[in-house]
Design brief:
By secondary structure, this protein is α/β, with parallel strands linked by helices. It is built from 28 helices and 31 strands. The strands form 7 sheets. An 8-stranded mixed β-sheet has the order 1-10-2-9-8-3-7-6, sandwiched between helices.
Length: 910
């Protein structure tokens, strides 16, 4: 039979080559059409569905171009070897579970699967080899996808593919909430198990002669049946016809019991196990203090990963900051050391960037975002309130009324929605009792609106509310009149589809009192009211309107609360979101750091780097808003200052902390005299500024400046000219380099012919001896710090002034210069300086020196201060680079330390 299919495959290729007039690769539909025609002529092949599926899959792999989806970083260590291609080339290779899943998506969900299949193959090939005759290796990886973008579908495709490959136990870890676990369980029942209460469901309808997986969990979590688990639950073996699957909450008691059941002498300790940690940044990450024992959940998941020597742990999240900050050197922890796969955002996906923009841009169309008037809402419900807060007003707040009426309009406007679930989210408190009070008022108001619509209550203010919401939100985008709109709303109300549901630990009692049935109907229009249960993992079908009135402290939490991200086919124009103005800014920041992470991964993939080299520096929020993640999850992170690739153009760069140690001062003076000698070379142009007697040397070789900066050091913690400090493994290490030296070295390597300007700024102090030009000391007030250095100009921390740059520009630029600029940076132009950086020197006399014992800052020529001007084409005085504070993970700390060490060594011998 196999030979017959090979002949059919050859004929399909021939047909597609003949028909390929436009030199385009055939589509999956082209392949399927040609295959169906040829098979229809051979009755003996019609009954062979497995052969048909295999032949179609082989043709697709051979003829359809590979999909460039996602970014993958991998580490192929010596113990692990690629294995999937070897398995696929086998004559016995079959994927019945994956095929039935894709058939279910096509037939029941009207969804394509080619990208999904590609992604599943890309990830499964990175797992541990499940074949018993191959060495057992464990793997740890991470899947990153956007909030509500289809991550669950991706990992279910991975589960089906892994089961086809021979994985015997699949464990899905969910949040610690039973409702969310049950939601995941139901999805896996239909999309993976295919069997429920003795009936084929979901993919089971498309499976023939395939043993369905054994369920270790179902209506209840594992702990509910723990007492009988050791005796009645099927234990996976190498000879199992189907894998066992468990959907388990991240609960210490449940995980502990499951580990005990799993870690049994009856198990082969090299059985292939797949652990999928959904929302892996939640609860899984060790948030204990350094040197303390790991947190309980983290410790139990570590133990779970070590029971079998052939375990693949796959973390899944949309907010991986906590995962990336795991200490990669601790191999027992959950750092994704073997692979990181970043899913590509589908074009139809509506995420944070489309809705809110980022820190550098705003979206072209943000018409769906509405800002809440906190001042108005504060009297009804303060944004900061306690768990016992009583909402005094028995009526619903006007802004929330408007949002509810907008949702009713949207349900009536959405095309072909009579049989679709539609939903609204109201998230205004994290406290269950306050959520109940909100639900009471929303439910009461909804009943009033329904009564007014049913009974044609002319002049009823609720009808006015509905009309106002329609005209303010949707009137300009539709050709429907209010009269026609009211008839639509009336039909919606008469269908009894509108309902309020409370989602929290007290929801059962509330639903019972308000006659809310336990199950959603297939076309229900639901207003969900809740807090944290709505904020992570909860999927609200057909979500159109959202009210989000919370202050959140962490970016990962904030992004997870954005349940409104996702897909809005044919009704994206109806979506509306109400939130605080500060939340909009927080979302822009959060979007920026996620996108920067993806860009960093893309660059690393291009360079062939591995997850163990995934040195991540995430910039801190420059505004008063959300931080990256919970502080305890950044226990291994280190704060540092970054200057994007040393791009200091247009910045004020001065030495403002000067070491008074005589050894350091003598070293600086020796380096200075060597540079001064170069300034007297024939090729150097010597001139004096026409504005004031300021000596300027032009055409100074860059190498001479690098030599000077490799020796010159200002004081401890001076940002640009002081020794570079690296915090690594809880040690603060002083590197023998500086930011200014690194900049100069980078410029020299990129342009060896570059020349600099060297300039000498005069003050009203004594004449500086030892130079053959006019140079006088500048007097500066200083604050003595840490018994080791002077801080120039006290808390102002300024060495020079804007006139210093003007003096140099007057010498290098022959035309008149506008001297009325309000900002010093407005003189830092290539128009004046060309592409030549300038190094300005100051001899500083300390004005307020009071005779500190052992210090003589006024002896000799004075302390040596330095200023660097890097010209820029155009200066934006309102938004300059400045310093950006980053949080470095442990990989980045090591990489930065090694790079600085290399540079210091490279230039230190010259």
């Amino acid at each position: 039979m196999r030979n017959k299919w090979e002949k059919v495959k050859a004929k399909v290729k021939l047909v597609l080559m003949v028909d390929d007039d436009d030199d385009q690769a055939p589509s999956e539909q082209d392949i399927e059409d040609a295959l169906k025609i040829l098979v229809s002529r051979k009755p003996e092949l019609l009954e062979d569905s497995e052969g048909y599926n295999r032949t179609f899959r082989e043709l697709r792999n051979e003829l359809v171009p590979k999909i460039d989806e996602g970014i993958t970083l991998t580490d192929q260590n010596s113990a692990w070897k690629p294995w999937l291609s070897d398995m696929q080339s086998s004559d016995t290779w079959e994927t019945p579970r994956s095929d039935s899943y894709y058939q279910y998506l096509v037939m029941d969900k009207n969804s394509s699967y080619s990208t999904l299949d590609y992604t599943a193959n890309e990830i499964v090939k990175l797992l541990a080899d499940p074949r018993r005759d191959q060495p057992a290796v464990s793997r740890k990886g991470l899947i990153l996808g956007d909030v509500q973008s289809g991550k669950t579908r991706t990992y279910i495709a991975l589960m089906n593919k892994a089961a086809d490959c021979g994985y015997r136990l699949i464990i899905v870890l969910t949040s610690d909430n039973e409702n969310l676990r049950q939601q995941t369980q139901e999805r896996i029942d239909t999309d993976f198990i295919g069997w429920q209460d003795g009936i084929r469901v979901g993919i089971g309808k498309y499976q023939q002669n395939i043993a369905h997986p054994s369920q270790l969990t179902n209506e209840n979590d594992f702990v509910a049946a723990y007492d009988k688990a050791f005796h009645s639950f099927p234990r996976p073996t190498w000879n199992s016809a189907a894998p066992c699957v468990a959907v388990i909450k991240k609960n210490a008691s449940i995980l502990s019991k499951f580990n005990k059941w799993f870690d049994s002498p009856e198990f082969d300790k090299d059985l292939p196990v797949l652990i999928i940690d959904d929302e892996s940044d939640y609860a899984s990450v060790n948030s204990a203090k350094l040197d303390d024992s790991p947190t309980r959940i983290n410790s139990l998941i570590r133990d779970l990963c070590q029971i079998s020597s052939r375990t693949s742990y796959v973390a899944v999240t949309a907010t991986p900051f906590a995962n990336i900050f795991i200490d990669d050197a601790d191999e027992s922890d959950l750092f994704p050391q073997d692979f990181i796969h970043i899913l590509k955002s589908p074009d139809a996906y509506i995420g944070a960037k489309k809705l809110f923009g980022d820190m550098d841009s705003v979206p072209e169309d943000s018409s769906c975002v509405r800002e809440i008037d906190e001042g108005e809402l504060e009297s009804w419900l303060p944004v900061s309130h306690g768990k016992n807060y009583d909402i005094v007003d028995p009526e619903l707040d006007d802004q929330v009324k408007h949002a509810v009426c907008t949702f009713i309009n949207a349900c009536a406007l959405r095309p072909n929605a009579e049989d679709e679930q539609q939903s609204m989210l109201i998230h205004m408190s994290r406290f269950t009792d306050v959520q109940r009070q909100i639900a009471d008022r929303v439910s009461g108001y909804l009943r009033q609106v329904e009564n007014a619509v049913r009974f044609h209550a002319d002049g009823d203010p609720r009808i006015d509310d509905l009309q106002e919401a329609f005209e303010s939100e949707y009137y300009t985008s539709t050709d429907i009149s209010w009269g026609m709109m009211f008839l639509r709303i009336r039909r919606l109300v008469q269908s009894s589809r509108l309902r309020v549901r409370l989602v929290n630990s007290d929801s059962d009692d509330w639903s019972l009192r308000n006659d809310v049935p336990p199950d959603l109907t297939s076309n229900e229009c639901t207003i969900f009211i809740g807090g944290n249960q709505l904020s992570r993992g909860m999927t609200l079908s057909g979500l159109i309107c959202s009210v989000f009135y919370r202050r959140v402290t962490a970016s990962d939490t904030l992004l997870q609360m954005g349940r409104w991200f996702g897909y809005r086919p044919n009704y994206a124009n109806l979506q509306r979101i109400w939130l605080l103005p500060e939340s909009v800014l927080d979302y822009r920041y959060s979007c920026s750091i996620v996108e920067e992470l993806k860009e960093s991964a893309s660059r690393m993939k291009h360079l062939g780097m591995t997850p163990k080299q995934f040195g991540l520096a995430i910039r801190k929020n420059p505004n008063k808003g959300v931080r990256i993640t919970n502080a305890s999850k950044m226990r291994n992170a280190v704060e540092g200052i970054g200057y994007q690739e040393f791009d200091m153009a247009g910045e004020i760069i001065e030495s403002i902390k000067l070491d008074v140690d005589m050894k350091r001062r003598n070293q600086n003076d020796e380096a200075f005299m060597k540079l001064l000698g170069v300034c007297n070379a024939p090729q150097v142009i010597s001139s004096v500024s026409p504005l004031v007697e300021t000596q300027v040397f032009q055409n100074v070789p860059a190498k001479a400046v690098v030599d000077f900066l490799s020796q010159y050091r200002s004081g401890y913690r001076d940002t640009f000219f002081g020794p570079t400090l690296m915090t690594y493994r809880d040690q603060e290490i002083e590197m023998n380099t500086s930011m200014a030296e690194q900049y100069a070295c980078t410029q020299l390597s990129e342009n060896p012919d570059m020349t600099w300007n060297i300039d000498f700024i005069n003050g009203n102090g004594n004449e500086v001896e030892g130079v053959n030009f006019h140079w006088t000391q500048v007097k500066r007030k200083c604050t003595f710090r840490d018994n080791r250095q002077f801080q120039i100009n006290g808390d102002k921390m300024r060495l020079g002034s804007k006139n210093d740059a003007l003096k140099i520009a007057a010498c290098t630029y022959q035309l008149p210069i506008d001297q009325k600029n309000s900002s010093e940076r407005q003189y830092y132009l290539t128009k004046y300086f060309g592409d030549h950086p300038s190094l300005l020197f100051y001899r500083i006399c300390v004005k307020n020196f009071d005779g500190h014992q052992g210090l003589s800052p006024q002896e000799g020529p004075g302390m040596l201060g330095v200023k660097l001007i890097v010209p820029v084409d155009e200066v934006n005085v309102n938004k300059h680079l400045g310093k950006t504070v980053y949080m470095y993970n442990t990989v980045a700390q090591r990489r930065e330390f090694a790079e600085l060490s290399r540079k210091a060594e490279e230039y230190g011998d010259d």
